[in-house]
Each structure stands twice: as C-alpha cells, then as structure tokens.
Amino acid sequence: MKKARPYRLAIRALLIALVLVQSAVPFLGFIPLGVINITIVHLTVIVAAVVLGPNDGALLGLIWGLGIWFRSLAAPTSLLDTLVFINPVISVFPRILVGYLAGWVNRVIKEHFSWPPSIRLMLAAAVGSLLDTTVVLALMRLLAPGGLMRAYHVSADLLNQVLLTIVATNGLAELLLAVILVPMISLALLRANKFLDN
Which fold has domain 4-192? Predict the structure, then answer.
C-alpha cells in the first residue's frame, strides 16, 4: 500500500495536468468544427476513472468541466461557449458524472464478472463517452434551447433533428475513439504500474 500511494499520486497529477492543458488548448482537448466540437479530453477522464477509480474519475471530470466553464467565460471558441456552456449545470455536472460512472462500471464488472480486461475497459469507455454526449445534449435541450437555436441557426421544430445528428456524428466518433484508445492507454498504465488498484 505504501508503494501504491506514490504511483497513484504521480499518475493523478499527470492526468490532471493533461486535462488542464487539454481544456485550455482547443486542438488538444477539442477539435473545433464551426459550432461543433469533437471532444477528446473525455479520454483522459475515462482513463483516470478506470485506472484510479470512480472518485478520481469524478475529480478529473470536475476539473474538465470547470475548464469548459472558465473557457466559456474567458476565451470562448464557439457560439455554444457563450450561449450554452456558460451554464455550469451543462458544462460541469455531466463531466463529473462521466468520470464517476465510467469508473463505477469498470469496478462493478471487475468485481462481478470474469471478463477480459480489454472488454471491461471498452464497456467503461463506451458508457463514459455515451454519457458525455447524451447528458450534455439533453441538458442543453432542456436548459438552453434558445441558445442552441441561435448557435445552430435553426427553428425550434428542427432543433431535435440537429441534436440527433450530433449524436449520430460527434457521438459516434467520440465513442469509437474511446473504445479503441481508453483500453490501450489504460492497460499500458496498469502494466507499467503494478501497484495500482483500479
């Protein structure tokens, strides 16, 4: 246990630093495509969740969400930042949920099923990525429909179609990235750090 603590602290610090950089530099954490951002920072949060556990996943999700919120206030990169992500319920809360539930899914599968680690990590990554897409879009639709209509230049009757298109495009791309990269990165970290107890 004494040996595990420095490993966990070091990995936590590195992942926190990476999330901070990804949140501050658009092309490292987000790929801006007009009014749409393809998120890649969620990969770091999910890796933290499956390698360090749900609480650390929630911590990195909080840092990620706060980064989005601060960016929307100080240096917005799209209309969504100024019209939608300025609300911390939309920008912060879902990201905490992503980190916590991805770690929780990983832990439950590990404790109750004898599935290969790669399958377990793929499922946790899929849950985290799907939560990010669906919860964020649902909260945007519920809490900021006017901002969405202005950002996407659509009327109210077309807004749901736009959001479903985002799920089918952004959501699918982010999901594929997560299920491919999260297991690769996480397994490498776990093999290199035998004292980690995820």
Answer: Arp2/3 complex 21 kDa subunit ARPC3 (1.10.1760)
